[in-house]
Amino acid sequence: MKEFIIKENEAGQRFDKYLAKLLKEAPKSFFYKMMRKKNITLNGKKAAGSEMLCQGDTVKLFLSDETYDKFSGDRKVQRAVCPLDIVYEDEDVILINKPAGMLSQPADTDEPSLVEYLIGYLLEKGELTESALRTFKPSVCNRLDRNTSGIVAAGKSLTGLQQLSGLFHDRRVHKFYLCLAKGSIKSEKYIKGYLHKDEKCNKVVVYENKVEGALPVETRYEPLGCHENVSLLRVELITGRPHQIRAHLASMGHPLAGDAKYGEKEFNRLYREKYGLKHQLLHAYKLEFPKTEGKLERLSGKIFIAPVPELFHRIIKEERLEERYNENLG
Q1: Is it the case that residue 101 has pLDDT exceeding 90?
Q2: CA–CA gap between residue 287 and residue 309 (Å, rounded)
Q3: What integer pLDDT is reported at residue 327 of this predicted model?
Q4: DSSP string of 72-127?
């Protein structure tokens, strides 16, 4: 028999959802059958699976060690450790300034992502245990492309993750980016379009008019300065689609410097030869939170800013855009 006491990060979810995490290799029919036979109980009683768990509840599994090992899928947690540039942290959420080149979420490779680095960070601090990871895994709430730097928000607790994800889903968190784009852009612009993603090549196309399978996109940008044929833009992401800023600006004739997928070869070559630039100059530099209550009350109405990476700042300076950048960063 195995006994589990429901902790704070496991409370507030349906019993069957909890069991699906605890016995991740088992078909749902298995643990429903075990509940009917009282081989799995909640607080010593027969359960249906629809019960909402509370902190302190007791779950008992009257299963053989062989059966439990077979269905639990227990294996050593993949952890990765690297220094994290933390913009803000409390007991429920953490905001991290992700460098370009790092994945936000796990992919179909063995390469660690920010999620693994976050787990490694919390394990090292003692705020998380490997056993707790059976039923709750801290994760990110917004995703940036691998070669886009900037603020990624993550939930450290179940409540923090749920509430923070809700804010992003409802577009209540305002997201601002800085980028270097081709062209002398003199005025603010609000642009709309329709984005269609080609899953095979992981590339999107933005259309002016609606086409089948395309999703609406809205982007607002304003120049913080321009010099010759390049502009430093502050971009507000109204909708949040894959590659939206990169593709939307490129469709307007303003591809980003260093963008191999949507950019212009000659424009990219100039910045690669002059600065060694190997990725797009796009940085998620600011998050503005709405008025909030409950666990996220600490974030209510706050603004968080992540400084641009060293190479980005150097290019801003040498392209004579630094004065306007410093004046308008906030």
Answers
A1: yes
A2: 17
A3: 55
A4: H---PPP-------EEEE-SSEEEEEEPTT-BSS--SSS--BHHHHHHHHHHHHTS
DSSP assignment, residue 213?
Answer: T
CB 215 within 8 A of CB 222: no
DSSP 320: T
Contacts of 32 (CB under 8 A, 6+ apart): 16, 49
Per-residue model confidence as pLDDT tens digits over 196-254: 988 777 889 898 888 888 999 999 999 998 888 999 999 999 998 889 999 999 999 99
Give 36-48 pLDDT, tens digit per residue. Answer: 999 999 999 999 9
pLDDT tens column, 289-307? 999 988 899 999 999 999 9
Q: Sign of the CA dihedral 126, 130, 135, 137?
A: positive
CA distance 216 to 240: 10
The number of residues in the chain equals 330
CB 319 within 8 A of CB 230: yes
Nearest CA to 216 among 188, 249, 191, 199? Answer: 191
Fill in the amino acid letter for 282: L
pTM of the model: 0.82
CB 221 within 8 A of CB 249: yes
Q: Among 100, 85, 204, which Cα is nearest to 148's?
A: 100
